[in-house]
């Protein structure tokens, strides 16, 4: 029987300039990344995880059009990944 390991990343928003909003990975498995606002883009983080064998298995629920959690087709919240244990 296959054994799996899991990782979660939390995507958060922050203000950019006067009226902009950015989204970046803030935590990995509950550990806040230093200088997370200057870190890799969400796309780059997810791509790196894919190269390491991680498969995305869960994403945040997309908000309603009246919520402000959605920026550039990514939602704030936890994204879960799994890969088979070696």
Q: Could you walk me through the main structural features you see in this protein, from its secondary elements to its overall organization?
A:
With 86 residues, the chain is mainly beta. The protein has one domain (4-84). Helix content is 12%, strand content 47%. It is built from one helix and seven strands. The chain has a five-stranded antiparallel beta sheet with strand order 3-2-1-7-4, with helices on one face. The longest helix has 10 residues, at 42-51. The model has no long low-confidence stretch (mean pLDDT 84).
For the structure shown, list the relevant keywords:
two-stranded antiparallel ribbon, 86 residues, mainly beta, 7 strands, 5-stranded antiparallel sheet, single chain
Ranges with pLDDT <50 over ≥5 residues?
none
Written as H for each helix and E for each strand, in order along the chain, the element string is EEEHEEEE
Give the number of DSSP strands.
Answer: 7
Largest sheet: 5 strands, antiparallel
- Determine the fraction of residues in helical runs and give it as a percent range: 10-25%
Strand order of the largest sheet: 3-2-1-7-4
- Report the sheet-strand fraction: over 45%
Mean of the pLDDT scores?
A: 84
* Broad shape: elongated
Query: Helix count, per DSSP?
Result: 1
Domains (count): 1
Which secondary-structure class do the elements indicate? mainly beta
Quote the distance from N terminus to C terminus: 13 Å
């Amino acid at each position: 029987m296959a054994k799996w390991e899991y990782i979660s990343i939390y995507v958060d928003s922050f203000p950019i300039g006067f009226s902009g909003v950015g989204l970046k990975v803030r935590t990995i498995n509950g550990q806040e990344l230093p200088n997370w606002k200057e870190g890799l883009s969400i796309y780059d983080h997810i791509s790196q995880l894919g190269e390491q064998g991680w498969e995305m298995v869960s994403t945040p629920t997309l908000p309603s059009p009246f919520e402000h959690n959605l920026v550039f087709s990514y939602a704030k919240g936890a994204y879960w990944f799994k890969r088979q244990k070696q």
